[in-house]
Amino acid sequence: SQTIHQWPATLVQPVGSPLSLECTVEGTSNPNLYWYRQAAGRGLQLLFYSVGIGQISSEVPQNLSASRPQDRQFILSSKKLLLSDSGFYLCACTLAGNTDTQYFGPGTRLTVL
Amino acid sequence: DQQVKQNSPSLSVQEGRISILNCDYTNSMFDYFLWYKKYPAEGPTFLISISSIKDKNEDGRFTVFLNKSAKHLSLHIVPSQPGDSAVYFCAASAVRGAQKLVFGQGTRLTINP
Fold it and tell me: What is the nearest CA distance from A79 to chain B, expressed in angstroms?
């Protein structure tokens, strides 16, 4: 079965600093990959999704970007963090050939000060 | 524009009784719906799903009902147990299965002994 790893688990960054969050998936090949953000007291908002290496679709305009350098690696980045980037970031995947369910990683808690 | 709404931010139920969580949606293109359970500082875990061709799906203590004409779905948990205390999210997709999910804001369920 698939396992999603995210790191770091928690991160505190100053405003204006860069960001790199990493997500890796084990146990499956050619998954669709997703980045979500949950702001305080809010639901999960889809930020990016990817159907393959180098293929990224953005759902919400913002100062974040995503990359997929390898089949099972998904990276969320920012050149300059804003206070509003604080939140809980979740990586998720759907399996190739079976899109009945999205599976989520443990998440990264980002606090921008 | 909130396409998926969970109007009750919280719900308190006595152990052993039925818990009913509600979700409304506005996009008539949604054809697949899921419920997730989330504990603090963890990723959501999949509970149950339903396709728009059905009006009910049952899995153990969990049953999801879909009313397409009312654009409403509900999750019933019977009997409720203390371990069910968590935040529950409903999600919807218009893209073949669980791809590009749109989530509600979540309902915090507390089961009282």
Answer: 25
